[in-house]
Design goal:
There is one protein chain. This protein has 89 residues and is an all-alpha fold. It has one domain. The chain has three helices and no strands. Helix 2 packs across helix 3. The longest helix is centred in the C-terminal third of the chain and has 22 residues. The protein is elongated. The chain starts with 6 loop residues before the first helix and ends in a 17-residue tail after the last helix.
Length: 89
């Protein structure tokens, strides 16, 4: 049995990626962590795929979760960032 077919390995990877998100915030790695956790859930419920299909599923789920996070945490429309104070003054 290969390591990529084990659900707990994907959850461990999701945890490590989430820890990277804590160190380097910006919602970039959080999408990958959610994607890895969801692949682990699918494997837990009996999904069996080859490595290429699992990596494709991981990529698609990561992209979708990143897009959902971007939609949920976007700025309200019409609120551009206006800089009124120069840091060099």
């Amino acid at each position: 049995m290969a390591i990529w077919t084990l659900w707990w390995a994907w959850w461990a990877a999701a945890l490590l990626i989430a820890l990277v998100e804590i160190v380097l915030p910006g919602f970039l790695f959080l999408g990958f962590a959610i994607g890895a956790a969801l692949v682990g859930v699918f494997l837990l419920f009996g999904l069996t795929l080859e490595l290429a299909a699992l990596l494709t599923l991981f990529a698609v789920l990561s992209l979708v979760s990143w897009a959902v996070l971007r939609y949920l945490f976007r700025r309200p429309s019409g609120q551009a960032r206006i800089v009124r104070h120069d840091i060099n003054d």
